[in-house]
Amino acid sequence: MFQPESLIPDFPILDQSIQGRRLVYLDNAATTQKPMAVLLASRHYYEAINANIHRGTHHLARLATETFEKARSTIASHLNASSSDEVIFTSGTTDGINLVANILSLSGRIKPGDEVLISVLEHHSNIVPWQMFCERTGAILKVIPCFEDGTLDQDAFHALLSERTKILALTWISNCFGTVNPINEMAKSARNVGALVLIDAAQVIAHSHIDVQAMDADFLVFSGHKVYAPTGIGVLWGRAEILNSLPPWRGGGEMIKEVSFEKTTYNDLPFKFEAGTPNIEGAISLAAAIDFVNDIGLKPIHGHEEFLIRYAAEALAEIPGIHFYGPSDRAGALSFNVDGIHHYDLGTLMDQMGVAVRTGHHCCQPLMARFGITGTVRASFALYNSTSDINALAEATRKAVKMLR
Ligand SMILES: *Cc1c(COP(=O)(O)O)cnc(C)c1O
User: How much is the CA Rg of the chain, to the nearest whole Å?
Assistant: First the structure.
């Protein structure tokens, strides 16, 4: 049996009171808290390893390089990548998507009139880079719509797919509504018309197993801070064959083989896409976070979170006038509004009762517009949350609604 209470001492930040009450942290879709294993890895790096990588001949430089490259292979094997060359360190999901959009726009593969397909569920970071991409290339942005229950309209998706579709960029799990998209089927359909497939796995990495070789994907991105690692580090996984065929975007140190004023030759994967000194400590801490998650096991974590989200929906359902968004088999996040009450007022009062939830548009303004709302209250879950957190959430919501009515 999974015991979240036994993990709480591992997360020092959770051991505090907010306005005299135990902190109940339910904003994990925005960022997760860090376990001791990650905090210690970060500290150990600066206390014992710190040096610049891939250049020095001295002991620390070798140690830093080895530890950094070991972190890369930890992540590669976690994703079941066929080689660690396919793991590019970025600063996060946003950075990874911008990197892919930029190298594709520079590749000469995209012609005016080609199409980029995204969905109405996307985070701004999987919308805006593609709008900029379309401005540069003359490609056209197409959007897969969703039904009232927040699931994507698969008939509309198939109608939008054509040989003009060059890229499908899709979130696997919606950070707003917790919708789990049928990513494998959709990726396969997109591949069948010759499109490249990018998967935004920001809301998957902490909750489910990812096997990139089992998917019809070309690129997959996530952020370290959504999986118990620090901010400022993330991963772009890309199929080596595709990454090799694409030009670099950022120029500088590390990404070159030889530089002269006449001609510069570029480095091999993965360094070709990692210009400049990377976030060495971040990469090492991310590997520590991945080890931490694997020590507990993604299966029990997933089962626990699935239980919590159902428990939360049931506990909140009794509140008069409450509306949930997304399908009932949602994952990770539970979004709601209460009739006649602004989400911001609700969230503010809940904060005063020690319950941290997010209110607002969650970086998904087009999705909010689709539902004719300005935002929702969103509770999102992690491995350290327990039924007592959910009880506190339900009680705080009930009390806040009473005060605002
Ligand atoms: C958090 C999130 C992002 C953006 O991640 P950053 O770490 O801010 O770059 C993108 N997509 C989804 C689904 C997210 O949850």
Answer: 22
